Amino acid sequence: MYLTHNDIINSKFRRINNIYIHPDIRLNSVIYKYIKKEYFISLMQDSQLYVANRSSFSDRREKQWKENIKMRFLFAPAFPTKEEKEYYSILSKKIGESYKLCISCWTFDKHVGCDESIMNWKCYGEKTYRIESTLEDLIWSIKPNDINIVIAPVSYEKCEYDGSVYNAIFKKYISYQEEQELRMCLLSSNHHEKLDIDTSRLIRKIRLSPFCSLEYNKKEKKQLENQFKPLSSRFELPHLCEK
User: Is the dihedral of CA 99, 172, 141, 21 positive or negative?
Assistant: First the structure.
């Protein structure tokens, strides 16, 4: 792999628990993860967080697709020197590799003025839970591993030019701005990774889906509390109700 963490971070990034953190996000920031029920159960049973390769995401832009075909290519000099040819060749390979990394998507949900976003719920569907944590708890819940990890907020712009490795990872099309995503990038091109996690440190609350009936959620909540007794007090019903 041509790509290293030094192609993504700068000197302002903080290194905590061997994870590189963007300087603009506070450690006490409350963050959320919408997670499919099957992956949540796996997380709790195995104490491992499943992190998918972004090439499996539904958004075609995560696969390096560009609406404007001209934006698929770097703007290299018309008559490059040998050194420039080598530089742009390596940069092109690094940007290509950045679209084949494992990504864990979190959100601030700060755009709605409360702690719940119907749009984010709808993106993940009915059989989904929402984990509440903080950036600091996420960082320290990850057990030692040999994968380079970078955490930074996503910016949203209409421009599709990916002239840098950082933008190729942490910039999304403006139509997705309501997500308010915080992205954890693992420098791995595997189909997926499983991070060993201290779930009691990671999880502050688990909220059930608003797309299930109140009766169903009450029954589900009791089952989860019995199945995962150490975290039984952290399960809660949704404030929203779409059923």
Answer: positive
Residues 6+ apart with CB under 8 A from 154: 170, 171, 172, 176, 179, 181, 182, 183
Residue 27 CA to residue 69 CA, distance in Å, equals 39
Number of H-type helices and E-type strands within the chain:
7, 13
Query: Considering the entire predicted model, what is its pTM?
Result: 0.91
Q: Which residue has the tokens 């940007």?
A: 95
Q: What is the dihedral sign for C-alpha 44, 49, 50, 55?
A: positive
Distance CA 147, CA 185 (A): 10
Domain ranges of the chain: 5-107+132-201
Beta bridge partners of 197: 142
Find which of 59-68, 90-99, 171-180, 216-225 is predicted with most confidence, using mean pLDDT: 216-225
Instruction: Specify the amino acid at residue 20.
Output: Y
How far, in Å, are 56, 92, 180 from residue 172 at the CA level? 16, 19, 10
What pLDDT, in 10s, does the model give residues 12-21?
999 999 999 9
Q: Is residue 4 within 8 Å of residue 148, measured between CB atoms?
A: yes
Average pLDDT over residues 22-26: 96
Q: Where are the beta strands (DSSP E) in the chain?
A: 14-16, 19-21, 30-36, 48-52, 102-107, 128-134, 149-153, 155-157, 171-173, 181-186, 192-196, 205-207, 235-236
Give the contacts of 57 (CB within 8 A, at least 6 positions apart).
Answer: 63, 103
- Residue 78 DSSP code: S
